[in-house]
Design brief:
Layout: E1 21-26, E2 29-42, E3 45-52, E4 58-67, E5 70-84, E6 90-100, E7 109-119, E8 125-131, H1 136-140, E9 160-170, E10 173-180, E11 214-225, E12 230-241, E13 247-249, E14 258-261, E15 264-278, E16 281-294, E17 300-314, E18 317-331, E19 340-356, E20 361-370, E21 378-386
Antiparallel strand pairs: 1-2, 2-5, 2-21, 3-4, 5-6, 6-7, 7-8, 8-9, 9-10, 10-11, 11-12, 12-15, 13-14, 15-16, 16-17, 17-18, 18-19, 19-20, 20-21
């Protein structure tokens, strides 16, 4: 009997505005544009689906089918603006979108960061709209240094729409908070429980049938970045769901829906991250835990993951190495009352190298040695142009 406890959808790294081109900058008004074009080849691998051991635990068993072995491409474009209102306050806004090519992964135009707000300098920033929640900045992103194949040990839900956000920083000390308003369609939900392998990472994880979904949520994060290159942060996040929200795979009738948690009640996350940068060396680490609960039958899923990542830059070359591990435990999932299943989802060593042709153009190659069950190793190489 095959069952899936947990599958993770990890969004790609967002395009940095560090290379933004200033279009207009006069009389307190500034407008920048930036973007990215990314092309890469992912090596072929045998898919792996969860199977049950004799003791009831789950493991990834290799199948005869293969996936990937293809070139994929996408482009991102973004803009950000700032208008001074007085000596302290400015109006600020950002919009960023991604377009995947016709035959690559998903053919769609996706909004990534769309928000507007106010910057009060020493009083912090107030933002309204869609972006990452307060639990990520300065905490979960410290070990996120690989273009692909890394940062797989977190079940953070990624960008959320309908947020009210506060961000403040004072002499290295930072504090972030965000309130997530009601949202009936949680396509960005980071956990996906399907009766298939982790290869399928694009489908939404929460069914929005009957317009049910997120009731509300909040996130907070805080930390300190020191002048000597050392920094750390901690964060927590909570989401409450309306009764009738199902976590799992909603299929087309007359097939039976494959719901892991038939009536999702809440999701709680917490994380701690730290990093150290000195000259050409960088090291980051992150540990996080998540708990998903159902309204009935004691349904619960717990996940624990940690990441280590480091890099060393030599002229135009950057060498990278990392380790990611993610485990999960399901209790009474898929309606099987009285059962508990453990599964090792990722146990991965990542090795990578990057070469910067200029500050805007780089190539990279990453190889992931996977030890979870019978999963195949993965590899990818690609090129990226940022402007």
């Amino acid at each position: 009997m095959k069952k899936t406890i947990l599958a993770i959808a990890i969004p790609a790294l967002f395009a940095s505005a560090a290379n933004a081109a200033t279009v207009y900058d006069k009389d307190g008004t500034k407008f920048d544009v930036y973007g990215r074009v990314h092309a890469a080849y992912q090596g072929e691998e045998n898919t792996a689906a969860l199977d049950e051991k004799d003791n009831g635990d789950l493991f990834y068993k290799k199948s005869d089918s293969t996936t990937k072995g293809e070139v994929y491409t996408y482009a991102r474009t973004g803009m950000q603006g700032k208008v001074a209102l007085n000596n302290t306050w400015s109006a600020i806004a950002q919009g960023e979108w991604q377009l995947s090519s016709e035959n690559s992964k998903q053919n769609s135009l996706t909004a990534r960061h769309v928000w507007a707000g106010f910057d009060g300098t020493q009083y912090g920033k107030f933002m309204f709209g869609q972006t990452d929640t307060a639990s990520k900045w300065g905490v979960q992103d410290r070990a996120d240094i690989f273009e692909e194949l890394g940062n797989v040990a977190s079940v953070n839900d990624g960008r959320q729409e309908g947020q009210v956000i506060y961000r403040g920083e004072w002499n290295g000390v930072f504090f972030n908070s965000s309130y997530i308003s009601k949202n009936s369609k949680m396509d960005s939900f980071g956990t996906e429980l399907l009766e298939s392998s982790l290869v399928a990472t694009t489908a939404p994880g929460v069914s929005d049938s009957n317009k049910k979904g997120l009731k509300d949520g909040y996130a907070v994060g805080a930390g300190y970045n020191m002048d000597n290159g050392f920094g750390f942060g901690v964060s927590m996040e909570n989401k409450e769901f309306e009764r009738g929200t199902s976590l799992g795979k909603a299929v087309t009738p007359p097939a039976t829906p494959d719901y892991a948690i038939t009536d999702l009640k809440s999701k709680d996350d917490w994380a701690i991250g730290t990093s150290y940068a000195f000259d050409a060396f960088y090291f980051g680490a992150m540990y996080n835990e998540s708990k998903l609960k159902g309204f009935d039958n004691g349904q619960e899923i717990k996940a624990k993951g940690f990441e280590l990542a480091g890099s060393y830059t030599i002229d135009s070359w950057k060498l990278l190495a990392g380790y990611n591990k993610l485990d999960a435990k399901g209790t009474n999932v898929y309606g099987d009352v009285g059962t508990t299943n453990d599964v090792e989802i990722f146990n991965r060593v990542i090795l990578g190298v990057e070469y910067a042709f200029t500050s805007n153009i780089k190539s990279y190659a990453n190889y992931a040695i996977e030890s979870a069950g019978e999963k195949d190793d993965q590899w990818e190489f690609g090129m990226q142009y940022n402007f």
